[in-house]
Amino acid sequence: MAVIGDGINLDVEQARPCLRVRTPAGPGVLVLEERRLTFTPDLTWSPFRHGPGFLRWLTSLFRRNKAQSIPVEQLLGARLENPAGTAFTVWYAVERVAKAGCVERRSFKLLHTPRFEVANTPGDVEAVAELVTHIRRTSSWWGRATPPHLAAIVNPVSGRGGAARVVDSHLLPLLRDVAGLRVTVMKTRAPMHAAELVRDLTLNVPPAEAAAAGAAAAGGQGAEGAEGVDAIVFVGGDGTLYEGLQGLFQRPDWASAVRVPLAAVPCGSGNGVAASAGMWDADTAVVALCRGRAEPVDVASVLQPPGSRFYCVLSVVYGAMANLDIGTQHLRWMGELRFHLGGVWEIIRGRCYSARVFFLPPEAEAASASASASALAADGASAGPRSGAAGGVAGAQAVPVGAAARGAVGAAAGTAEAGAGGMEERLLPSDERSRSGDMAAGAGAGLAVSDYPAGPPLPILSGLRSLPSPLPDTTDTLPAGWRKLPDSFAVFGAYNTQYLALGARMNPGGRMGDGAWDVWHMEGPPGVGRNASSRPAPRGMRMRSLRMLLGTEDGSFANTPGVLDVVKARALLFEQRDVATYTVLDGEQVPDRPLYLECHPGLCRLMVSPSFQEPR
Ligand SMILES: Nc1ncnc2c1ncn2[C@@H]1O[C@H](COP(=O)(O)OP(=O)(O)OP(=O)(O)O)[C@@H](O)[C@H]1O
């Protein structure tokens, strides 16, 4: 042990600084041991019990020289409290468990010690700097020698507009000043700006092996020290992450860029991605970003004629579930409450919605692949649209629910039509836009997978001879293994993760990296046909919907038989056949045309809370 300054010792070899410090409650010794950081006061007061009040002072008399310690696994970092570097506070995170209905929510509360101060000598200042760096490196740098670099994409209009506040209260003071991470803040200036920002980022891609080893460290050792960004943090709602995801897949290097972890800090209205990752609040998100745990998350490619390709990680919803989101946009100022009001309104309305849905269960994937391979072989491996039963009809009706139908939706929602078309316009790079425009003019456009922007391979959809439009009446023209859902729904939603919003566990039992989406549906009355107006719900349906609404917070509706049915899907063919609703991907409306979804198992990586756990 070397003596560095007045009363300050540093056990250099074992990196165990022992500092003689002064707190507002009196002097003592601060020791960093292998398992804990301990402060032992010389006199009577504990640093954790300082503050005004005679009673507090009196109690501390009975706690003479009692050492206070923080387990190292709780440490987060330390902040220098003055320019001279002689004062600092140590920050740590304590786990809290709260009950939300029948499920536990594990979040973190951030706490700090009182201000420790040392004498102003070069040796003391150096020892403090060394201690601060040591705590930061071992607690919050993902096991690296240098601090990871986070790009924070901040949407100032998400939710109630609190994202900028979270930057000032958490991202900069805690992640940067306490944990010592490098944080670059970028504010979005308009819809889809997040995609542009992600497209232009210089990324520090971890090696494939490090990413595959995955769960432990978000970055991996190989990427350390490079100039790029180690993780992309979306400070906003689900829409902000969704837009960023589109940008990620517009990058020419998307195949490696997907190894850079994504994170969601909850500042929107729904925050389904953040909730599904266990990021219940900004404090917990800070701890997660410091610990650097990342898990694989499935991404779905969604193709829509004539040439759009979207990517989503959260959900495809339609009917009541879509109306309570998109139909309540004007109540955004209410935060999550708007979804509950929308849900109640949908129950009062008691509507069912018509749609055509086919899905491929995971266990049927192999059968489907071999069937389509042999069909292709029999056809001489021809590619592109065919004039078969599905393809022939499709050619004439590439946009199945016509302008009149979209007009009706637009009229109902004010800006719905502009929003949907506008998003498609914004999503596609300019060359794709012009291509898709040309294709829209031509009959049969967008019916082969090759008509869509390149990206992750789509073996299941490519196995279809063409993308059927409109969707057929039966599974006869589809490869083996495909199944059909009823044509009418009181509720329909396909989910990848457990939560659709912080207070909505819509997919209890869902796992975000299992390579399948869970399709929840409540069947409506038969005979609701194409382009028909939505029908009133039959008897008992309102009660089932109400049960679902009441059991949404913890997902307990799933325990009541007969409320909803669920199937797992590797791929989905979906066609909207109703004018009184929307089709919504990850909370963002898309045009009301057929969509073809295929799941890419575990393609991206999502940063999760240290206590994140999914059902087995
Ligand atoms: N600077 C901006 N000005 C206006 N709109 C923006 C800006 N930046 C992003 N947007 C748009 O804000 C919309 C809402 O963002 P986001 O989805 O993150 O919040 P939210 O809808 O409140 O949350 P959630 O999706 O979780 O319900 C997005 O559709 C996005 O296009």
From TrEMBL:
<dbReference type="InterPro" id="IPR016064">
    <property type="entry name" value="NAD/diacylglycerol_kinase_sf"/>
</dbReference>
<dbReference type="GO" id="GO:0005737">
    <property type="term" value="C:cytoplasm"/>
</dbReference>
<dbReference type="InterPro" id="IPR050187">
    <property type="entry name" value="Lipid_Phosphate_FormReg"/>
</dbReference>
<dbReference type="GO" id="GO:0046512">
    <property type="term" value="P:sphingosine biosynthetic process"/>
</dbReference>
<dbReference type="Pfam" id="PF00781">
    <property type="entry name" value="DAGK_cat"/>
</dbReference>
<dbReference type="GO" id="GO:0016020">
    <property type="term" value="C:membrane"/>
</dbReference>
<dbReference type="InterPro" id="IPR017438">
    <property type="entry name" value="ATP-NAD_kinase_N"/>
</dbReference>
<protein>
    <recommendedName>
        <fullName>DAGKc domain-containing protein</fullName>
    </recommendedName>
</protein>
<dbReference type="InterPro" id="IPR001206">
    <property type="entry name" value="Diacylglycerol_kinase_cat_dom"/>
</dbReference>
<feature type="domain" description="DAGKc">
    <location>
        <begin position="145"/>
        <end position="306"/>
    </location>
</feature>
<dbReference type="GO" id="GO:0016773">
    <property type="term" value="F:phosphotransferase activity, alcohol group as acceptor"/>
</dbReference>
<dbReference type="GO" id="GO:0001727">
    <property type="term" value="F:lipid kinase activity"/>
</dbReference>
